[in-house]
Structure formats: structure tokens, C-alpha cells
Amino acid sequence: MTPPDWQLPPGVDRGLWDYLHATDMVAGYDAQMAVSPLAAADVAFCERWFPTPGRLLDLGCGTGRLCLHFAAKGYDCVGVDLSDEMLGKARATAAAAGVQIEWLKTNLVELDELPARSFDYAACLFSTLGMVRGPDNHAKVVANAFRLLKPGGRFILHAHNRYFAGLGFGRVVGQWWRTLAGRADAGDITMSQAYGGAPLTLHHFTCRQAVDLLTAAGFGVREVFPVGTDGKRARPAALAYGFLLLGERGPSGP
Length: 254
Hints:
It is built from 9 helices and 9 strands. The chain is α/β, with parallel strands linked by helices. The strands form 2 sheets. The protein has a 7-stranded mixed sheet, sandwiched between helices. The protein has a two-stranded antiparallel ribbon with strand order 6-7. It is globular, with a radius of gyration of 17 Å.
């Protein structure tokens, strides 16, 4: 049953709800990811910073590509998503592959059911954080990642670049002015959905904004990797499609 707008979960608007429950999108999602250089860059970055088996949390796991990859290597994986359709595909793929993964349907803004300091690694990849609506909810997702990691735990975030040239000159200039003016909608880019439904708004981050999100939650930022559409390091960094960031929780503290 589709809830009315006023009953949508925190951080979720109608466009995101429609996207998460688009069966055509879910059916073709794995095929798209299999040929995406950006998806490959996500996994390669995680492999570099998650070097030894441990407990891994994927925030916005979709059809389970990250969990499936690391579960096959002996990691204890938990995938979290709000889409029944995505999780159904993830469960079926994991069963066919013969790997054990825990799948949890819940909102990334509200993860109180998971115990603190219970994971070695966490990731929130590609456009996931940008789909969450509102800066307060962005901060809650990152704060949840920090709370759930053990001391010394590592968190990888993939954020889209607000000033990516591929967005078009007019749109980039508009975003620059909105950012300079401190507009509340700075970084929000709305587009029609290929699979129907309400328009989908994705928040695009400046590199500084993404770094500040991590440090405000308590993370030390160990690396920022500007990634191009080909999945390689973008040069200059200002032209990157997005940023892969590695945050590390300190060895002590609350």
C-alpha cells in the first residue's frame, strides 16, 4: 500500500518512494551496475580500506552488490534498505550464490534497532545519501554510521559532486549561486524518473560539505578520492563526477 505524503518515513519524499518501489528499475538494476565503472570504483575503494574480514554494514544496499561481493570473501555482512523490491532481489541472489547475509528493511535515518559499536566497516555508496531529503537527515545517517562502528572502524561515503560539468553549464552556475547565497535548496537537483513516478531529487555535495559531514559526526577523514565517470581519479578534482571519502572512527571516545 502506498502511504500518503504525510506518512512517508523521515528523509523520504514522494519521488524517492516511487523510485524505491519501481519494479522495472529493480529488474534491470544489477545489469546496469555490472557495466558501471562507478560501481566498480566503489568496490575497489572498499577493498582497499576494508582489507581483512570483519562485520560490514551496507547503508542503502539495494540489490546487495557490496554485501554479495564481501560475503563471498568471508565478511559478515548486513544490508539495510527501505525497498521491499530491492531486498527481495538481494535475498534471491544471495540464496542462489549460497552466501549468508542479513537483510534489514529500515530507514537509514532511524537505525536504533542496531546496537552501537557492532561493525568493523560501513558504507553508503553512489547516490544513496543524496537521495535522503534534508541536511538534518544527511547528518543523522552519517551519525548512525559513526555510532554503529567499533573504535577504529571505517566508513566509506560516495557523494555526488555539485559542480560536475556533465550537469550542464547553466545548472552548475545556478548551483554555484545558490551555494554562495546560502540557499536551503543548494545542491538539490530534480529530474524526471525513467521509470515513472514523481520527479526524483538528488542532493549533490561540495567536497567540503561531505568532509564536514564526516568530521561533525566524529570521523577523521583519511582519504578523499575524486572519481570520474570512468571510475578513475578525476583530474582536476573539481571536474569529478563525485567523491569517495574514507572516514575512520578513533580508537577511543563515546
